[in-house]
């Protein structure tokens, strides 16, 4: 069956605040799912949207698919169980920066380490929105919130750095308003075998309005972000006149035409490289010294947890002398009770 985006839209009223970036991510997901089903050769009934607690965690209600609204921080545990129990499912985990990186932090990094074939969309608005404006693990240093009235004194997590540190095989980043890029990223994530983490930089209009404005504002976006695509030179700017080169072991921003620099001198993005060094530098680029990297930054192949687990179970079952529950109950040390 060939689907349209409307096939995935539920009849539930979307209850996010007007102007919330989550709306745009929902629109991107609705656009991406028909292509995902076609790419994977699956039906809508094989899609499951899983969430924990937070504004973004309302997501399963808005999708006309199977879904599971879990408890705070436990979405990754639920996703893991579903994928291991039924590898034919395409699992999409919707989680916020607090849900995934605070109370759910341990589940998050271990799912990535195990490389379970799930797709995690991480909504990063740098604040706890649903619980009314406390600072989160990604809040900027010095941010004044209800739980940091004099400004935070903590350095924030960089989600991409956390993913790479856990030996992640897929990491992408985008802005909520980049619908076409988001759709492209989601399809590539679905195609990837392993844990796919997609960080979506979203805006919370109520408690942290404009948190990504320094790079998301349309008038400056082209000069302050760079969209990376595998096999393409790292070029950016309104006039495509800036680029990234490798200067020794470090990245460097250059201007085309200056000092004889041409497009041929620019670094070509290799998302499939197993060398994590360049990927780490790309993840850590930040304005104003560098453009913020968007698109698929890392996409490498590795064994997946559920495949290895089912392979192991098959080998054990094949060698085992016990073939049924009755044989198990009568094996080993047994006693007859009179």
Strand content: 15-25%
How many alpha or pi helices?
11
H and E order: HEEHEHHEHEHEHHEEEEHEHH
The share of residues in helices is 25-40%
Global mean pLDDT: 96
What is the topological layout?
Elements: H1 22-40, E1 47-51, E2 66-69, H2 75-85, E3 90-96, H3 97-103, H4 105-114, E4 119-124, H5 159-165, E5 170-175, H6 179-191, E6 196-201, H7 213-216, H8 221-224, E7 225-228, E8 235-236, E9 242-247, E10 250-255, H9 276-284, E11 292-299, H10 305-319, H11 325-329
Write structural notes for this entry.
- The chain is an alpha/beta fold.
- The protein is 31% helix and 18% strand.
- It contains 11 helices and 11 strands.
- The protein has helices at residues 22-40, 75-85, 97-103, 105-114, 159-165, 179-191, 213-216, 221-224, 276-284, 305-319, 325-329; strands at residues 47-51, 66-69, 90-96, 119-124, 170-175, 196-201, 225-228, 235-236, 242-247, 250-255, 292-299.
- The strands form 2 sheets. Strands 2-1-3-4-6-5-11-7 form an 8-stranded mixed sheet, with helices on both faces. A 3-stranded antiparallel sheet has the order 8-9-10.
- A hairpin with a 5-residue loop joins strand 8 (235-236) and strand 9.
- Helix 1 (22-40) packs across helix 6 and helix 3 packs across helix 4 (105-114).
- The chain is globular.
- 41% of the residues are buried.
């Amino acid at each position: 069956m060939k689907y349209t985006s409307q096939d995935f839209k539920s009849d539930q009223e979307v209850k996010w605040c007007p102007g919330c970036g989550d709306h745009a991510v929902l629109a991107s997901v609705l656009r991406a799912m028909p292509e995902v089903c076609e790419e994977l050769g699956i039906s809508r009934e094989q899609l499951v949207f899983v969430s924990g607690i937070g504004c973004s965690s309302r997501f399963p209600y808005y999708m006309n698919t199977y879904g599971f609204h879990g408890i705070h921080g436990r979405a990754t545990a639920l996703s893991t169980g579903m994928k291991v129990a039924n590898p034919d499912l395409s699992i999409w985990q919707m989680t916020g920066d607090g849900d995934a990186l605070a109370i759910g932090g341990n589940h998050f990094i271990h799912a990535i380490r195990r490389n379970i074939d799930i797709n995690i969309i991480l909504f990063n608005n740098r604040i706890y929105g649903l619980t009314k404006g406390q600072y989160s693990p990604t809040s900027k240093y010095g941010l004044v919130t209800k739980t940091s009235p004099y400004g935070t004194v903590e350095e924030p997590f960089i989600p991409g750095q956390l993913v790479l540190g856990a030996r992640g095989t897929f990491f992408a980043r985008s802005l909520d308003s980049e619908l076409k890029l988001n759709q492209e990223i989601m399809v590539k994530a679905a195609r990837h075998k392993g844990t796919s983490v997609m960080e979506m930089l979203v805006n919370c209009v109520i408690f942290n309005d404009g948190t990504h404005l320094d790079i998301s504002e349309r008038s400056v976006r082209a000069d302050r972000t760079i969209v990376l695509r595998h096999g393409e030179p790292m070029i950016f700017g309104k006039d495509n006149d800036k680029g990234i080169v490798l200067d020794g072991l470090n990245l460097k921003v250059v201007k085309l035409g200056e000092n004889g620099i041409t497009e041929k001198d620019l670094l070509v993005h290799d998302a499939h490289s197993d060398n994590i060094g360049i990927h780490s530098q790309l993840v850590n680029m930040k304005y104003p010294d560098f453009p913020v990297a968007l698109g698929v930054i890392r996409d490498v192949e590795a064994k997946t947890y559920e495949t290895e687990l089912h392979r192991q179970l098959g080998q054990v079952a094949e060698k085992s002398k016990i073939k049924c529950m009755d044989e198990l109950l009568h094996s080993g040390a047994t006693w007859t009770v009179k």
